[in-house]
Design brief:
The protein is mostly helical and about 475 residues long. It is built from 19 helices and two strands.
Length: about 475
Amino acid sequence: MANRSWRNFDYPLLGAVLALATYGVVMIYSATINTAGIGNPVQRQILYIAVGTLLLLLTASVDYRLLEILQHPVAILTPLLLGAGCVALVITWQMEQLRAVGAEPVFVLSRTDLLAMAVGVALVAVAFVTDRLWLARIDLPLPRLVAAAAVVGGAAGAALLARRLDLPGLYWRLGAVVVLYLLDCLTLRFGDILRNPLYVLVLGMLGLVFVIGQVSGGAQSWLGAGAVQPSELAKILVIVILAKFLADREERLGRFSTVLISIGIVALPALLVYLQPDLGMALILIAIWAAMMWTAGMRLWHILTLTVGGVAALPLVWLRLEGYMRDRLMMFINPKANPDSYFNVHQALVSVGSGGWTGKGLTHGTQSQLHFLRVRHTDFIFAVTAEELGFLGAVAMIGLLFFILWRTLRVAEKSRDTFGRLIAAGVAAVLLFQSVINIGMNLGLMPVTGIPLPFVSYGGSSFLTLMLGMGLVESVAVRHKKLEFG
């Protein structure tokens, strides 16, 4: 039976991935041959390919449907996470108070802090029990509306009492968490997604970065002395989580509430990634959501509503962007405004334009070998390829990328269930978005975002998570037919 399943393994897809990865090793070698201070990236990339291939095969050998079991709801996770959030609120509150008086922000537990933590955790526990015993059992809209009004009224009364007792603002924050939790239980029930262990793992990984993460390239995105980038693994896990959510609600996609909850599922990890700050990875998560919602059959009027809302929110988004993010966008719109920042994009364009049809030859590029082109083995490796192997070499690389994309979409089309189809579609979205953005910024058609070229750019976390994603695609391919007996 196992041998029959492996007959469906997509060997052309694996072959194209390995061919593209080998292509990448050759270009990494050429881009770093005369570069000091970066160790031996070629040997490390070869090791990543070996480990990634093993990871792909192991993942393909496991039934992807087992991932649904890992997402079996655990009701207690929601109050645990909200309780931990209350504890974090107390800590951040005290830190703010210390900074306000100019003191060293060192956290030391006091009786007042312990009391506030206990109050927050107790309120969350009461809200959870109230939901289990009463709110979750309310089926009709009118009683839910009355209950929501009672919650709001009770919150207003508690706020007036807190003002009379002159309670610190910390208790207002803790109360707001509980009130929002109760209102969510009566409306969208977005908090139910926090019962998903895999989703809590994603939030935990991304949250851990803010506590013990290392800063690299201006972003606090790394763990383990810069060896692991949790946001890379998070994008694959988000694909699995969203695929499970949409597959379970296939008959309810016509409801706008389902769309809003799906946005919330992606918005939380995207926000955590953006705050690192890493705009490129946050945009990848948004692209994953858009592609998977389209594949699931999102209604046209939902798309139009969200499009109008997104356009209306652009001024607010612009104001909330980090300064360097706005600078990059302005540089894309008006390169002459900041020639120094535009330097590397200009060098990339020179590299691409000077390659001609067949290029200057491997290791013979001027912009790359004379180090005019920066980050040439990661973000701008496509420019190195176009300069040294020419138009034909660049087209060959793009051809491999689109062959991989086509085979991935083919697996999605042949999937036996919605869960597998959406997983493959999510992985395809990552490949397409990263390829278009990376090649586009090398050609000056997209703003510089630091997104690597799939399977080609140097990097461990990015490469291994992509191989994990391809392993999931192969797992779907292996099991796209019902097992035959007899």
